[in-house]
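PROTEIN ENTRY
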Amino acid sequence: MKKQWSRISTTHIILFSFFIAILIGALLLALPISSADGKSKPFIDALFTATTSTCVTGLVVTPTVSSWSVFGQVVILILIQIGGLGVITIMSGLMILLHKKIGIGDRLLLQDVFNLNSLSGLVRFVKKVVAGTFIIEGVGALLYMLVFIPQFGAEGIWISVFTSVSAFCNAGIDIIAENSLCDYVLNPFINMVTCALIILGGIGYIVWWDVLRVLKQSRSKKVKLFRDLTLHSKIAITATLILIFVGAALIFAFEYNNPQTIKDYTLLQKIEVSLFQSVTTRTAGFATLPQENLTNASSIVCLLLMFIGGSPVGTAGGIKTVTFAVIIVSAIASIRNKEDAEVFGRRLTKQAVSKAVAVTCMSFIIMFTSTVLLSVVTDANALDIVYETVSATATVGLTRNLTSSLCSTGKLIIIITMYLGRVGPISLAVAFKRRKDNQNIVRNPTQEISVG
């Protein structure tokens, strides 16, 4: 049996680990003790909630604050933490904590999960990831307490912890109110802390340690922070900043005179709200504005931001910033009739370009299929449906008030979409890494075709 288990591919282990976590979570949430009213929730709702938590999406069929008991909320929070860090990372962290030896098979699995190129320092990397996650979530919770304890009393401690973990893991689920963070739309402190947690979780662990490495080196010798970062970090940081500020500028322009959103706010308040909307679409899912009140132009901008998502090896979803950047740079290179795609003075590998195309195409296929299927079972507005399916595919959690009205079939479609949207890109990344090790294969002859 052990020999047969060792033959299971990394892709299957990732798929099964998320599936098992979701199933266990659904069974727990279906218990009467998990419900706020002491009555068992329909299993489809429990399954939906377990999926959206584990896949750190944030779409909910019933308000979390009023539907689930403290026990149910604890289950949801654990699923969010598992989904943000990853089941494999959690298990490896527990093994390290218990001083259990991590074998070569486990190291290879971790290497695939984090999409790293070397086994060197892998255990140390996992330790730093887990420790860094808990430190940032802890600091975030303490900052939230400054607002939530005066407002909610002792319950504010639990609300602060839950919100911090959810924000860092880019889950977007909260236990504050039924309208997400709309009551705090003009609270600069809550907006700032939430945006910081979202960005730190979504920028990716690799970027964390790279920035810290350069900062540490700069103390002992002359080092220019951005210049001495790795190419990955340069692309991730640059793409993140561009998407946040360009997205905020477009939302600001399109919503400026919208009486349902920011028309009556001051200039600074409009900038604050627009910036938060741009950040939260990076797969975070918290809302300070009802998404159904946005103009069509802003909604389309948000669709693009949601589809792109955060950066690799982080808690965010989407096709990822680096993937999007590689696609754009490769397209520009082709337009300029250049053989190689280059960025920041470095040439991108053919494998990186192929992987970016594959991840983008796969995510688009999931989104398109889900949109068609959901259109069959609901008569909602087309924009509302697309917003829902892109949000599910990219594990964002923003909705134009459609999720709560879905029928059982619609819920099942979104459940599958969230699952595929979360595990699909990870599994595809693993497949490409394994393919790299198998280069000595027989290839068929080439033949020219017409493209475009």
Summary: The radius of gyration is 22 Å. The chain is about 65% helix and 0% strand. The chain has one domain: 2-433.
